[in-house]
Specification:
Elements (H helix, E strand, L loop, with lengths): L1 E2 L2 E4 L2 E4 L9 E4 L8 E3 L4 E3 L3 E6 L18 E5 L6 E9 L3 H5 L5 E5 L2 E6 L5 E5 L2 E9 L7 E5 L6 H15 L11 E10 L5 E9 L3 E5 L15 E3 L3 E7 L7 H13 L5 H9 E6 L4 H5 L25 H15 L11 H8 L2 H17 L9 H10 L11 H4 L4 H13 L13 H7 L10 H8 L8 H4 L8 H16 L10 H9 L1 E4 L2 H13 L3 H4 L3 H7 L3 E2 L2 H21 L8 E5 L5 E4 L5 E2 L10 E2 L3 E2 L5 E2 L4 E2 L7 E4 L12 H5 L14 E4 L6 E10 L5 E4 L6 H17 L13 H4 L13 H9 L4 E7 L32 H18 L16 H15 L4
Parallel strand pairs: 7-9, 19-20, 19-32, 21-23, 32-34
Antiparallel strand pairs: 1-2, 2-3, 3-8, 4-7, 5-6, 8-14, 9-13, 10-11, 10-14, 12-13, 15-16, 16-20, 17-18, 22-28, 23-24, 24-25, 26-29, 27-28, 30-31, 33-34
């Protein structure tokens, strides 16, 4: 029986209708079927008085976005009898056998009586039968018949708890008194944006009054919905950006966040004073408040892993990440800047070629899995749907209108999101207001000659079925209609953007421009395919419309002198073109890239016109090959994209002439080209003149032991050393931080998830590097259970040295206190980065100083990298 989301079973009441609660279904095991177990402590046989089978709710349970994340559980039990033994079997969890083999155990508390969370005393037992993972544990009911005993996957920290904590800080800190000293705390709390379900996403600003100005920060477009002034700006102080809970079930991140926050708000702590003096801290405690409140483990309310959409988040579907990325760019540039067109080659090739077909295959696989599901969970779906509708936090919730919550459904939504992610830029007009989509659709009739089925099909690729106009007019909802309309809207917006002449808005001029609109492949996509051809021979012939176009624009020459003369003519023509005009001429042809939807313009010389690039930033990359008849053959010259402040493109040496390869040899295995003959542009990140100093996104981790960081990979040795410096210092300041477990590999930047196939390239850590060039961009991970080691910390300079050297103990079970200490150690390590820690441990360590520490990391990096 399920009354008001309280499940009654066998006289016991199972409670789950609260913030972060998660329980789906309960069944009682008949008394005669309860099997005895051996008590490992007493080595005697015990038979519980009661036994129950429990099912958790997967993320987005009962909705079209339901997915396979079933690790988080959190519920309470009011027992029918006091002081009886009960066995609980949670039988539909994700397979986390490795973690539970290492001693992981759920946590429990009893209200009233034992309000503090602690791990259950008896070690749980797990088993796998018919591919179903079951976790079993026992407990004894309270003597108080009115008490409720709670159980959770790990130490919870709910959205309501966060709001209570922040409100208590507000009471202590606000309103800010007149500063008596420049060291006084400057604290500011504001609502950055509302989540999909209307929960507030808080942004905290913490610093001192050093460098304060009378100017306030800019109110960014679509952000800061409440009528509240922005905080003041500060001179000569860079921003440190810290966020947590993008994955709602990873609660250790909140405790690390709280430890760091409590340090910053300590008035008389020397480390906190120095941190506030040097930096402005921007902190987002919950990036996924909806997922937290609904008891999800990894995704938001639409089943999206938000830590995979940072490259191109949607204000409509991913508002919290959209806001976070907008803030990061604002603090990096110092002003609100539109998104750049440039993407490095690694990013482009991993997200463009075959993206639609892969997503279609993934959707079909997911559909088959859903059809093959057993009936264990189906019977409680209807009750779970009702539970979800009521399971909203009652505090600080903004009511969202129907128009704002209207979403695309099913597999069409997945495909539409892939289309959205593939765009190289998000046009400003797309997010101006809620009516932009409707307005753009009203203009589609004027462009029907362009936006026909053939054009849409060329955008989607040959593997995706496109509904005809007649099918779309059928009664009922057509699953591909949202995808078709998304494509039309995207192309329509691209056409209207930067494609009008001042004072010329007549229908005749529009018709004339549309006559020159065609589909093709932009230079960046062509280069991507060319690079893939080296490792995937024949891919150019598999891409629709690519090979014929390239052959048509690849001229042949009978001598090298003729080729060089043509190159000089091309370069001269390009210089004249850029000097004459910044806009396409009347005779220029407007194209939309078949692969990425980018709008570009081709000149009369069949060259892509770069409208926004100055001549000084344009260079031409040329490769030469010999044709079958001995003629010199070169692809059309293509300008390299303009770089921004944080990225420098370095081109390798010119290629040597190669002999023609027969089709048979192309299919056969071939040796990789020597390292010194590569011609693909190489992305090198440099420390920009940025307002951003450090980015850290906090997480929890199930499989890998310890507390550690993920950093990005750099070919440049000095950048690698700077990236590793903070994690190495953390291991000198914290007992439980594992530098040996940190990962700085390129593979870890682009690894795809096994479940959803999404790349870590879309994570905050990698996307911040790509957007800003920031070397110090990290993910900090905390294992839920324990670590592999305990560090021996060197003494601080001003501390009294111990008479005997301390010995490393056994790794303890991690608790909120240990996670909070990690947050405090992070503050000390940030000061050590620049040698401004008032009581550092580095002088008493094996390294003695920062210079020697960098040299140690330089040698460590050389050892870890493969020798060429």
């Amino acid at each position: 029986m399920d009354r008001n989301n309280i499940i009654e079973c066998g006289g016991f009441y199972f409670i789950h209708n609260f913030d972060s609660g998660n329980l789906g279904h309960v069944e009682r095991v008949p008394t005669e079927l309860i099997a005895p177990t051996i008590n490992l402590k007493t080595n005697t046989s015990e038979t519980p008085d009661y036994e129950f089978n429990l099912w958790t709710r997967p993320d987005c349970a009962g909705t079209e976005f339901e997915n396979g994340n079933r690790t988080w559980f959190y519920f309470g039990i009011q027992a029918a009898e006091p002081n009886v033994q009960v066995r609980l079997n949670i039988i539909n969890l994700n397979k986390q056998g490795k973690m539970y083999n290492q001693g992981m155990a759920p946590v429990t508390r009893t209200l009233p009586g034992k309000p503090q969370w602690e791990r259950i005393r008896d070690r749980p037992v797990h088993s796998t039968d018919d591919n179903t993972f079951t976790l079993s544990f026992k407990y004894r009911t309270s003597e108080n018949a009115k008490a409720t005993t709670f159980f959770a996957f790990t130490y919870p920290f709910s959205f309501a708890e966060l709001q209570i904590a922040l409100n208590s800080i507000d009471l202590k800190m606000l309103p800010l008194p007149s500063p008596q000293s420049l060291d006084d705390i400057y604290y500011y709390r504001e609502c950055l944006i509302y989540s999909l379900e209307g929960r507030r996403v808080d942004l905290l600003t913490i610093t001192s009054h050093h460098g304060i100005t009378t100017e306030r920060e800019q109110r960014l477009k679509n952000l800061f919905p409440e009528n509240q002034e922005r905080p003041f700006k500060f001179q000569n102080k860079k921003v440190i950006f810290i966020s947590a809970r993008v994955h709602p079930g990873e609660t250790p991140s909140s405790f690390v966040f709280n430890g760091f926050l409590n340090l910053l708000l300590t008035r008389n702590d020397s480390i906190a004073i120095q941190l506030r003096k040097l930096y402005v801290f921007k902190m987002i405690p919950f990036l996924n408040p909806d997922g937290v409140a609904r008891g999800h483990y990894r995704t938001d309310t639409r089943g999206v892993n938000l830590n995979r959409v940072y490259l191109n988040p949607s204000l409509t579907y991913h508002p919290t990440v959209f806001a976070s990325r907008a803030l990061i760019r604002y603090y990096h540039f110092g002003y609100e800047k539109d998104e750049d067109l440039f993407e490095d080659s690694k990013s482009f090739t991993s997200r463009s070629i075959g993206n639609i077909s892969e997503s279609a295959e993934f959707t079909e696989t997911k559909k088959k899995k859903n059809l093959a599901k057993g009936s264990d969970y189906k019977r409680e779906k209807s009750s779970s749907a009702k539970a979800l509708s009521r399971n909203k936090s009652s505090t600080t919730i903004k009511q969202v209108s129907n128009e704002e919550t209207q979403s695309v459904s099913g597999e069409a939504a997945h495909l539409a999101e892939q289309v959205h992610d593939m765009k190289l830029q998000e046009m400003p007009s797309q997010m101006n207001d809620a009516t932009s989509y409707v307005d753009s659709n009203t203009n589609l009739e004027e462009t029907s000659s362009l936006l026909n089925d053939n054009v849409l099909r060329s955008c989607l690729g040959s593997t995706v079925h496109l509904s005809t106009s007649e099918e779309l007019k059928m009664h009922g909802g057509n699953p591909l209609r949202p995808l078709r309309e998304t494509l039309k809207n995207s192309i329509s917006l691209l056409m209207e953007s930067n494609n009008s002449i001042a004072g010329d808005s007549s229908m005749e001029s529009k018709a004339a421009r549309l006559a020159n609109v065609k589909m093709g492949w932009c230079d960046e996509c062509q280069r991507a395919v060319s690079r893939l051809e080296d490792t995937m021979p024949g891919i150019a012939n598999m891409v629709p419309g690519y090979s014929a176009m390239i052959l048509a624009e690849t001229p042949k020459y009978h001598s090298i002198d003729e080729y060089r003369e043509h190159q000089r003519q091309q370069i001269d023509a390009q210089e004249r073109k850029l000097q004459d005009t910044e806009f396409p001429t009347d005779g220029a042809t407007v194209y939309f890239c078949t692969n990425c939807f980018k709008r570009y313009v081709m000149s009369e010389f069949d060259e892509e016109i770069k409208l926004s690039e100055p001549l000084s930033c344009t260079s031409v990359g040329v490769s030469v090959c010999v044709g079958d008849n001995g003629d010199v053959c070169v692809p059309a010259a293509r300008p390299i994209p303009n770089t921004d402040d944080a990225i420098v493109l370095q081109t390798g040496p010119p290629p040597k002439e190669e002999k023609p390869k027969s089709p048979v040899k192309t299919v056969a295995k071939k040796k990789p080209p020597p390292a010194n003959t590569t011609i693909a542009p190489k992305v090198v990140y440099k420390e920009p003149d940025s307002g951003l100093y450090l980015y850290i996104d906090l997480h929890g981790h199930a499989s890998k032991k310890g507390i550690f960081m993920y950093g990005n990979h750099f070919e440049d040795l000095d950048h690698s050393v700077e990236c590793m410096l903070l994690p190495r210092i953390m291991s000198l300041n914290n007992l439980h931080f594992h530098f040996s477990s940190c990962n700085f590999t390129e593979r870890n930047m682009y690894l795809k998830d096994r479940r959803d196939g999404m790349s870590r390239e879309g994570s905050g850590r990698v996307a911040v590097l790509k957007a800003t060039g920031l070397v110090r961009s990290y993910t900090l991970e905390c294992n839920y259970n324990t670590g592999r080691l305990v560090n021996v910390l060197p003494p601080a300079v001003r501390d009294t040295p111990l008479p005997t050297a301390p010995h490393a103990g056994m790794p303890p079970k991690y608790t909120p206190h240990i996670f909070e200490e990690v947050g405090r150690s992070l503050g000390a390590s940030i000061l050590d980065l620049t040698g401004q820690h008032p009581n550092s441990r580095i002088p008493c360590s094996e390294h003695r100083n920062l210079s020697a520490l960098r040299e140690w990391l330089r040698a460590h990096t050389r050892t870890m990298r493969p020798q060429c």
